[in-house]
């Protein structure tokens, strides 16, 4: 899922392990009709799953797309996997939107993060 | 690490679990001087790690970058983590190239893949 907000995307933070993540790597077809509407709908749905932590998405123009979704535990991921609209979207994805994809589901054992310190700004002149 | 080949990127395949992956999500700074040379050098180095399986990379222009590297086992990932040039590059990344990043290291428990069937081509006329 891509981010639909206008704010600049920032990486999802490092949560305290263990937690789960699903890495979905895709190469798209030429025909992307209906994709963005479905993507927005799935983004709303996944936010309703208890234990959903967030999603990172990056898309190289004309190249690989990577979506990483994070979940507190395996149960949360199982609930998302069983969602009826999610399953229908997966089926449509294989029929129309994806040339190829790989899904890797994993338990996070270690995580860390970095955020650059803000450079202090001098007072602005009036 | 990005792919430096001219061939269209395809997703790294689904290996037989368990295997390991490191998900590195980044937001870059304006100053990317020296980044691409270091990236190319690291790509060569990681290929020399026994048990290295491959890397997926996607970069939204002006937005999030995601790099996922796959390893056969935790030992392979530990070797890569300990590489001296890799560690120096990480330090330079924090000093110059990254506004923020998150690293998630995980054990893959389940994986699957899909590749669209080729549409048969009729014989071309001479």
From TrEMBL, chains A, B:
<keyword id="KW-0560">Oxidoreductase</keyword>
<dbReference type="InterPro" id="IPR052936">
    <property type="entry name" value="Jasmonate_Hydroxylase-like"/>
</dbReference>
<dbReference type="GO" id="GO:0004497">
    <property type="term" value="F:monooxygenase activity"/>
</dbReference>
<keyword id="KW-0503">Monooxygenase</keyword>
<dbReference type="InterPro" id="IPR011008">
    <property type="entry name" value="Dimeric_a/b-barrel"/>
</dbReference>
<protein>
    <submittedName>
        <fullName>Antibiotic biosynthesis monooxygenase</fullName>
        <ecNumber>1.14.-.-</ecNumber>
    </submittedName>
</protein>
């Amino acid at each position: 899922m891509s981010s639909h907000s206008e704010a600049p995307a920032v990486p999802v933070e490092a949560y305290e392990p263990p937690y789960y993540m699903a890495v979905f790597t895709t190469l798209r077809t030429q025909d992307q009709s209906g994709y963005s509407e479905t993507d927005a709908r799935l983004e709303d749905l996944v936010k309703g799953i208890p234990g959903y932590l967030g999603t990172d998405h990056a898309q190289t123009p004309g190249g690989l797309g990577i979506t990483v979704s994070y979940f507190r535990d395996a149960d949360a991921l199982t609930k998302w996997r069983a969602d009826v609209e999610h399953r229908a979207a997966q089926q449509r994805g294989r029929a129309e939107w994806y040339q190829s994809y790989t899904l890797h589901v994993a338990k996070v054992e270690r995580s860390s993060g970095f955020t650059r310190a803000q450079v202090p700004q001098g007072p602005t002149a009036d």
